[in-house]
Amino acid sequence: MNRRTTLILALILGALFAYVYFYDASRPGTRETEKAGNRVLGNLERTRVSEITINQAGTPIDLQLRTNVVAPKPGETIELPKWQMLTPLADRADAGTMDLLLNELDNWRRDAVVPVPGAAQDRAKLAPYGLQNPRLSLKIVRAGQPPLAEGEKSAAKPAPPLPELEVFFGDATPTTGKSYVQLAGQNEVLAVDDTVRKMLEKGVAEFRDHQLTEIPSAEIARLSVKTAAGAAIELDKDPSGHWRLLKPQAARAADQRLGQLISRLADLKIDSFLPDARAADPAALGLAEPRGTLTFSTTENPPRVVEVQLGKAVEPEKDNAPAPAASPSTTPLPSRVTAPNTVYARIAGRPSVVTLPKTVEDYLNLKPAELRDRQLLRIANADLVNRIRITPAAGPELTLTRAKSPEETGDPAGAEGGKPEKPWNLRVAGANADAPANGAEAERLLTRLPAQTVKDFVADTASDLAKYGLDKPTLRVAFLSHSSENTAEAGAGEVPLSTLVFGKVEGDLVYARLEEEPFIVSVDKAILDTVPTDPIAWQPLPIFKFDPKELRTATQTVPGRPETAFERTPESAPLAWKLAGNNAAGAGTLDVVKAQSLVNTLARLRATRWVGPEKPEYKLAADTPEGVATITFQTDPKPPANAAAGGGKLFIGQRSPDGMWYARVEGKPGVFLLSEPDHATLLAPLTSAPPPAATTTALPSPAPGAAATATPSLAPSAAAAAATPTASP
């Protein structure tokens, strides 16, 4: 094959490829062609429909898809295609109705085709089908390309516009639920279902947007309520996203309550649109001097604002009467009669008076106290709090400070090897150094106080603090952020975030106020018990912390029982523990499993909580007449830092009212509560009863002919001793 022949074949192949790619590939397939051929409007391409005009007996309803530009955030813009009504009045179109109509048009099927030669030129031939002078028609305009989705780039060369479609509607067919239609320029009449016809015969009001606002509830950031009496409530969102009350006084607002109100307002539906003739007298509708005005908006610049004026309640008896005769300029199209339980309203920017559900009046009856945040205080970011200062009226001032590393906490590994507690240190006024603090209690305080609910807002000003005992507070709790370095935003030092003070107690309530706010409130007095003011109560919960293998000897002393001492055996011994001292002979058998459990519990002993200073009723003193239970132990010569000088002594006293046990450690201030399981393990009997002393008393001889009876031994057999489990440390 020569070079010329090869070139010719390549050109032919390229031409075929271009035909398939640019022409044949864009043609619908056989199935698609058959499917489109059965549709009244063929391949509608609904995404390219840009305008629909419905002509009802000479009155057009013109609907266009237009692009709205919104700015959800400063500096951002988004183009959103929205349906708008242009005639007979300018208003927003109902997106749901338009979507449903387009869906019906896209799936509109023909049942039969009746050829009418020459009908395209002579409409008189369509008279038998009611199509010579049709009272209802539909025109569809399609753009060159569909609207772009968010972020989509436009094509380099927009596609040309599609041909306009116009459909005329005639009489009903002999078959129920069917009617005749004709597409402009075609010489045939189609028999179709009446679904589309019924949608197009709806009144203007059905095509108008019934949503009160297009603004999503999440974007509404300001709300104003004004009544005819002059009362006003204004609220907005602060930069952190929390609602705040601006009028009648500045205060924190309840986020959840405001979220519900805003959501209900944004979802409110218009009940009906009044014809101009009925809305001609604003005074009769109570709109000359509105009973109230609702205004809400966004934060963008310029903001999107919706203003709603509320008038009188609808009187069904009058509204069911015939409407005044329409003037030549008034549209004769039907409007839905207003329903009871609605009120007249005017929405700024919308052309008609409307009726809204009567529930909208609830906004006019709002009371500022209903909108205020009943949370005692609000800490926007607890992680910013790195210092808590507690100042009681009696007692030293306590300052809790976040430690810089987990090693500074008393329990860096957390309880039972769980999640580490956040490290906090405690400094008592007058002390020269910090001590590890109960980090879990500090974190609880950060959540417990804000969670308290205000019982009542007592006063809106703090002018008479002495009346409520707040001039000399019984307790002051300050949450602070502290920086040791200068930054661009602030210098080094303490920055108060929120300071809470408590005053006089009356009954079950205590008066309180935030120093950052002028209000005085009352809260449950039990809140005072949630703020420990004794340094003892802030001690870390771990009591002992060492490896169980480091314990060498332990002595258990329980009133009413012999003292039990045991010690670790050499590593080569079959058992880990053995009785020691005076117990070594004649004290019975040591239960090594219970001994090991005691050691394990002691090595990781934690307080449930600290109680405070020692009191006689706890029965923890060494000279208690009836005696006190103790556990004394010794560890290796070089124990961890928190093991008391190579050992320690634990005192266990009386049972507490809440089912735990008072306990203390020798050389450590304060009393703590021991859990019931730990108490049971530490004081469980460790030995079995000793065998009875051997006797020489002869046993009676069995009767003649009687079988010999074996005498049971009270001492353990060699096999049983061999089977005794060896406890590992």
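(ticket continues) Second input and output from the same batch:
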Amino acid sequence: MAFTTLPDSTPPPDPVAPAGPRRRFSGWRWATALLGGLLLGLAFPTPGWAGLAWLGPGLLLFGAVGLPAGAAFRFGWLAGIVYYLVALRWLLHIPFPAGAIAGWLALSAYCAIYPGLWIWLSLRVLRLNSSGAETFRAGLGHFSGRPWFTRLRQLLFVAALWVALEMGLARFLTGFPWSLLGLTQWRNAPLLQLTSFTGVYGVSFLLVWGSVALAAAVTGVAYRPVNRFGWTADLRGPLFVLLLVVGLGFTRLVRPVPGDRRQLTVALVQPSIPQEVIWDSAANPARFEKVFQLSQQALATRPEVLIWPEGSLPDMTREQLAAMTKLFAGTDTWWIFGSADSEPAPADAGAQWRHYNSAFLFTPNGRYADTYRKRRLVIFGEYIPLERWLPFMKWLTPIGASFTPGNGPGAFRFGTSNTLHVSPMICFEDVFPHHTRAHVSPETDFVLELTNNGWFGESGAQWQHCASAVLRAVENGVPFVRCTNNGITCWIDEFGRIGDLFSEGAGQVYGAGFLRTTVPLRTDGAPRELTWYHEHGDTFGWSCVLVAVGGVAQAGRRRKPTV
């Protein structure tokens, strides 16, 4: 992909700043960076004003025009840290104040590097920083004077670059794909059908392309002679693609559902146990009694499966285990729950035991049937980095020792002749698109997510986590069932629509109770028709990486002095 410009012409005087490279950016640049970051952060739940995601990237890119490389990066980093401080403010609810504040600031500062890189590299490739265009107004004039097709290719490039950086954010240092831009559109079911081909990255691409095209159209009015609709030239491409995607999405949503699909009645217990109680061993009897009573009420509705979330089950005494076995006796109800699991460690492991965050399947008569062990662990929440060599690190966290990751995806098979096939996931594993794919097969009836968002009080974390599950359901074409400690307990169909949601009066989703619901399964047990994304993975995302690397490399060669 080539990026060309028209020959430079003498720019008009710039009333905003003097000509020549600037090492600092002025007050209006600060305001633009802060506003752009705020728009992006508020697009995530809560409040979840998704429309703001269509404005933020364009405002930031064109607000940085004319800045030298270092200032361009700082501009993007400032916007990024506002973006993530707002989107990730739920971290402050962790009942470990020093660690919560430190984690919030450190994680936001790290994630902000990616918007900083996006601004810097975009301006470099488009030749809109101070080495290619001395000032803000001159840079806008240079860009607006380029042929329409050149502007189109360059706007497509900056959208691909955004996706390439999101691919890195989702993988580098174990990855943190929690706040990928495409997640902001999680309630827009027609648009989300795009993810069955491209994954979440396709929605991010379309958001950024539409946003920068809008900014190009608006700024171009002052620099190009236009007729009545000529100013819309840059907008026509993304608008056409958006209408096409939404139209195809509607056709997918209205497709008739087979009437002979099997169904499973499940009871999802949401105990809403505060995290401080989970850490307090003295509270175990009251904690067990709360879950036991909710289970009694749920079993009275005669579900086929009773499910407890992650973090709900304390270390049970023999008497408590006997009480649970008696409760299930004669009910024909299977039992799935999350709990810690341990086994002796090898002699050379440096510890006597290995601990796992696990999910268990028990038969209706109270016998153990299967286990899944969580594969992706939360840093400082489930494992302490460099614990063997830097033991003092454990004092920075509320956990006493690290868990061990499991070996691979699991599948709970149960029901008559083991015809039901459920793929369990634990905690935040489902926020990783490439990881979730491995848990789905043509035999999967649904993905079961057991999670404990009680760490974060009653905050936007629960809704943001649910948004990830919605995207994963559409990407793979398989329903998700979510059983959570304090929200959002629900099931989601393969098109990303929430089929049933636990709530108390006035829509309160964080309280204690249970949800009895019916989940549709595969038609007559036949293999599920999975999506293009599930079969081919992040092909679109890696294509954007190649485009980004090629554009940046070409820009480097173009700037290299000739001998």
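Agent notes: DSSP finds 18 helices and twelve strands in the chain. Confidence is low (pLDDT under 50) at residues 1-22. Closing as not reproducible unless the customer responds.
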